[in-house]
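Example 3.2
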Amino acid sequence: MTSDPVRSLAADLDALIALLERVDEQHWAGWFRAARAEIMNRDAHGLTRILRAYGGMGSFNDLLIHPQNGHTVRFAEAGQASEQLDALRVRIRDTAELLRKQSW
């Protein structure tokens, strides 16, 4: 993470959106694209949007990148894509929680 958590969060969101678009996961790509726009406008609702994605059944936590889930990824690449997703998922949540605690 860079010394600027907002900049770090934006970079991680960019990477996440690119990954989701690459595998044709439009729902979550749109969700995080909207959150990123809000954050870049210094709108704290973007943090709320991010953190809301992580709860309940069918949430972002449940997303697994895999061809059987309709994603445009080869079976051999699904594991690596899911590992990248998991790393980004954790960093994004942690940074959003940090910013929220800072009353950003």
